[in-house]
Amino acid sequence: MIPYQSLMLPLLRLAEDGREHRISDVIEPLGKQLGLSQVELDEMQPSGRQPLFNNRVHWAKTYLAQAKLLEITRRAYFRITDRGRAVLARNQKGSM
User: Fold this and answer.
1) Where do the structural domains in the chain lie, given as residue ranges?
2) CA distances for 3 relative to 13, 54, 73, angstroms
3) What local confidence, expressed as pLDDT, does residue 91 receive?
4) Which neighbouring-strand residues pair with 74?
5) Which DSSP string corresponds to the chain?
6) pTM
7) What is the signed CA dihedral for 34, 39, 40, 44, rounded to 10 degrees?
8) Each residue of 5-54: pLDDT tens digit?
9) b/e map 32-62, b = 16+ CB within 10 Å
10) Class of domain 5-92 (CATH, top level)
């Protein structure tokens, strides 16, 4: 399974449009963008409480928010920050 660290940049790029996004609305498109099969998207955590990929996306969002690259606008919603845009601009030049 994909570690949450490798989801951080794709999630940030998804938020690049500046709109407010609901985390549950970005999980499936992000998985498809990464080429994951439905079986991989449906794989559950050992606890059986949540799909593993969903968990990884939520952790990526959490750490991006802690780094001030995303802002949590309300429960389950987020938006890119100016700092996040600056990181993407630097990344397009080859470094993060």
Assistant:
1) 5-92
2) 17, 11, 25
3) 82
4) 77
5) ---THHHHHHHHHHGGG---EEHHHHHHHHHHHTT--HHHHHPBPTTSSSBHHHHHHHHHHHHHHHTTSEEEEETTEEEE-HHHHHHHHHHHTT--
6) 0.89
7) 140
8) 999 999 999 999 999 999 999 999 999 999 999 999 999 999 999 999 99
9) eeeebeeeebeeeeeeeeebbbbbbbbebbe
10) mainly alpha
